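Example 3.2
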Amino acid sequence: MNSTAIDPTLLATLLNALNGTSLVLPVGSSLIGSADYTAIAAAYCGYNGPPFFNQCLGICPNADVSGIGVRYSFYFNSVANAVLVAVSPSDAAAGAWSSTILTAALIGPALLQKAQVNMTLHHAYIVAGLGTLSSVSSLATAPMVPIWRGRRQATRLDAVYAIDDAESERGRVVLAVALMIQIVLVFAWVTLLFVNPQYAQPECSGITLLVWLGGSQTASYIDKHNYAGWVTWLFSYAAVTAAFGVVMVYSCQSKVHDSPRESLTGWRFWFKDWWAGVDHDSHYRIRIAILGSKCVAGLIVLAYAMMAEWQIHLNRKMILPAPGGEDRIGNFSQAAAVLLSISPLWPLWMAWSDIRQHNDPANHGAHQQEGSGASSNEGQFGSAVVMLAPSPHDNPNNTEASRYHFLEVATAQSRYAQVSSEDLDSESGTSATGQSHGSRSGQRRGHLANGSEISLISEAMQPASV
């Protein structure tokens, strides 16, 4: 809110021009939309001196908090991040940071305004709803980001395929910090609202309509009749955020995220099999629980968005038009919020292009021809590391580069390819040529025409632990 000092004499002159009547005039009044109306509203909102007029002339707008650009940037960013993590989970970490920046840009200045008593009651609870909405959407989608699973993959495949675990560790720390910032900001804001009930325009606080528990009541009525329930509702913002933080911590450790069923296509196939009564997944109960938590998070995000818009609609007649209102994108903060919210569009477009290219029949034919001689066991064993090891008949004078003729991480050809260590151990007693090698390491070996060995080491060679 603008804090420019206005001459009290000038403001008194403008107020006397209305004979002390309220600026909240019925539609059709000659003052609404006129230059006099806008000038008086601007003078009233810009006044920063001692109070001398006890009647509420209207709630001064705060476009940095509840402007249409700010609100819809939060809504769009939440939806875009949910779509991004389903289509391209590897790009979802950037989406989490965009949500963190939006939340910090909203709550950070709001904390300063609240400390200076420049934040109205109406805008204070809009901030609480938008901050919680953004945090819940980020925490609900965070477990699907592949960066949390880097350590387990490195542990299983480190013997044959080097993975930069230090880089993954830095990525996990950065993403965890982003999520923690959102949780701390929501807790700080809710705590400040509870311990510091001082708001700007106190003459307007009592008649401000607040939306809670599916209904709306004035602040004065809540203060007299439902104060205990209101305090509980206030801390529910922080409780919801903390609850999804706990869910995120447990979900990130779950083995179910290692499966490609976390993608949109994978979930579609999984539901078809579940509906048909086919159980190919030992973790289906955990998958149902995780999917249920995401659905609950989506409903909570939708509920907070609807409550924010409903409260703004109920108090719309009290929002003054000065110094520009809240229904148009006319300042830097709203434009910056809109531009930041659309940042996930580029990775979404790239992921969608990759999906279309992958589903192109022409590309399928080319890939099948290229990979026809690579490994006949890819479809059977799913995701595997294929390495051509040196044959005993190779020339010992070959360079280091000739020791390994081929190294490839093969993608899974079947969505049901999960091979346990027991299955591999039971088959590891005999090689593809019928020679017994007695290995219990979970490797299957065969010989190529040129005498080189092929070693298939499945990602699923160790028992899964949730």
